[in-house]
TrEMBL record:
Record note on quaternary structure: Homodimer.
Main location: other
Entry keywords, A to Z: Disulfide bond, Glycoprotein, Glycosidase, Hydrolase, Lipid metabolism, Lysosome, Signal
Protein name, per record: Alpha-galactosidase
Species this protein is from: Corythaeola cristata (Great blue turaco)
Reaction catalysed by this enzyme: Cleavage of non-reducing alpha-(1->3)-N-acetylgalactosamine residues from human blood group A and AB mucin glycoproteins, Forssman hapten and blood group A lacto series glycolipids; a neolactoside IV(3)-alpha-GalNAc,IV(2)-alpha-Fuc-nLc4Cer(d18:0) + H2O = a neolactoside IV(2)-alpha-Fuc-nLc4Cer(d18:0) + N-acetyl-alpha-D-galactosamine; a neolactoside IV(3)-alpha-GalNAc,IV(2)-alpha-Fuc-nLc4Cer(d18:1(4E)) + H2O = a neolactoside IV(2)-alpha-Fuc-nLc4Cer(d18:1(4E)) + N-acetyl-alpha-D-galactosamine; a globoside IV3GalNAc-Gb4Cer + H2O = N-acetyl-alpha-D-galactosamine + a globoside Gb4Cer
One GO term of the biological process aspect: oligosaccharide metabolic process
Protein's UniProt keywords contain Cytoplasm: no
PANTHER family, per the entry: ALPHA-GALACTOSIDASE/ALPHA-N-ACETYLGALACTOSAMINIDASE, ALPHA-N-ACETYLGALACTOSAMINIDASE
GO cellular component, one term: membrane
């Protein structure tokens, strides 16, 4: 795979993209869409709860919402089934079949419905004797057959979980499924849970091999509907960013799990934080919420155009945490194409809004550069911010301020020579 030329800022930070990737030409930017699991789980009681059970009705209705409520145009294209969709047994020919009561028209009809709305359908499998929810798994002898079944149904993405299998079976089965999916001739994005079952880190996880096998992968625990869960994922990704950050890129992404914005566990500020932090981490944006009843404020966060543009940046470099202050403020930086950048100022404080003052020089930006800055959430623009200028942002407790920075004047010195200097005498505080 050709490696895009990185911006000087990326080089200065020692970032690079791996040159090897799964050659299916898919997921060149992080996949976007909707996934059933976090919000709807394994609710199969359609008699007691027909509105929220895992059935074709739920997916038909979510497809309508993606198509009609402005999601599809923004890039939210995938509508993904998770666990508990199938019958409890394979059919006489050994094929997976959907539960006949909950999916009476079958998966092919659902895929046709989704495709007719300009969307794509994802499905769930598990490399093991059973899925995590106790439904038929894909054992090694069934890999080719199941790949063929999914392709015949018109599936566009497969999430392959790892319950009820050994490390040895996973080491054989995950690459085998990649091969089997490619052999069907149908473009199917491949999402693996492989590293999550091996602790997510080397030496047990070989990210070079993983990037050749999968388009995206779950590295860590399932997200739950709570701020604690979001923080635990963020902490793990930040603590291990030296390992994780370099392995992400076009066609192969770290997946910190679903967006839970619009559910019950996050405040408004925390919802804005998850969106900004997932975006700066180049994470897939897979919402798991009820799009039929989503609040206007949650919808506004998830449909922020500039945020999505940053998430979908074609360079595909994952951001990093670059500052961790004693004041419990953290700063994340993501280099973007055309020498642009995204900055997230994140507060872990729980007392009151915090006035954070710094300079771009302290954040490793090249001297002599001048930037236009747009606040991603408020839309406010600062023009002519120099690297040495002092500025301040007010960050709410468990909230973020997110900036998109675009160079108006490129630095005189080459981009790969970045020196940190104390700011000069021209202080122009900027308050947002």
């Amino acid at each position: 795979a050709a490696v895009p030329v990185l911006s000087g800022l990326a080089l200065a930070l020692g970032l690079a993209l791996p040159t090897l990737a799964l050659e299916n030409g898919l997921a060149l930017t992080p996949p976007m869409g909707w996934l059933a699991w976090e919000r709807f789980r394994c609710n199969v009681d359609c008699r007691a709860d027909p509105q929220n059970c895992i059935s074709e009705t739920l997916f038909f209705e979510m497809a309508d919402r993606l198509a009609e409520d402005g999601w599809r145009e923004l890039g939210y294209k995938y509508i993904n089934i998770d666990d508990c969709w199938s019958a409890k047994q394979r059919d006489a020919a050994g094929r997976l079949v959907p539960d006949p009561e909950r999916f009476p028209r079958g998966i092919k009809a659902l895929a046709d419905y989704v495709h007719a709305r300009g969307l794509k359908l994802g499905i769930y499998g598990d490399l093991g004797t059973f899925t995590c929810g106790g439904y038929p798994g894909t054992t090694l002898d069934c890999v080719k057959q199941d790949a063929q079944t999914f392709a015949e149904w018109g599936v566009d993405m497969l999430k392959l979980d790892g319950c009820y299998s050994s490390g040895e079976e996973q080491a054989e089965g995950y690459p085998a499924m990649a091969k089997a999916l490619n052999a069907t001739g149908r473009p199917i994005v491949y999402s693996c849970s492989w590293p999550a079952y091996q602790g997510g880190l080397p030496p047990k996880v070989n990210y070079t091999i993983l990037a050749e096998v999968c388009n995206l992968w779950r590295n860590y625990d399932d997200i739950q509907d709570s701020w604690d869960s979001v923080l635990s994922i963020l902490d793990w990704f930040s603590a291990n960013q030296d390992v994780l950050q370099p392995v992400a890129g076009p066609g192969h992404w770290n997946d910190p799990d679903m967006l839970i914005i619009g559910n019950f566990g996050l405040s408004y500020e925390q919802s804005r934080s998850q969106m900004a932090l997932w975006t700066v981490m180049a994470a897939p944006l897979l919402m798991s919420t009820d799009l039929r009843t989503i609040s206007p404020s949650a919808k506004e966060i998830l449909q922020n155009r500039l945020m999505i543009q940053i998430n979908q940046d074609p360079l595909g470099i994952q951001g990093r945490r670059i500052v961790k202050e004693k004041s419990h403020i953290e700063v994340f930086l993501r280099p973007l194409s055309q020498a642009a950048s995204a900055l997230v100022f994140f507060s872990r404080r729980t007392d009151m809004p915090f006035l954070y003052t710094t300079t771009l020089a302290k954040l490793h930006f090249p001297e002599d550069a001048v930037y236009e800055v747009q606040d991603v959430y408020s839309g406010k623009i600062i023009s002519g911010l120099k690297t040495g200028d002092s500025f301040s942002v007010v960050i709410n407790p468990s909230g973020v301020v997110m900036w998109y920075l675009y160079p108006m004047v490129l630095p005189v010195q080459p981009w790969h020579v970045v020196r940190q200097q104390a700011p000069g005498g021209s202080f122009r505080p900027v308050l947002l």
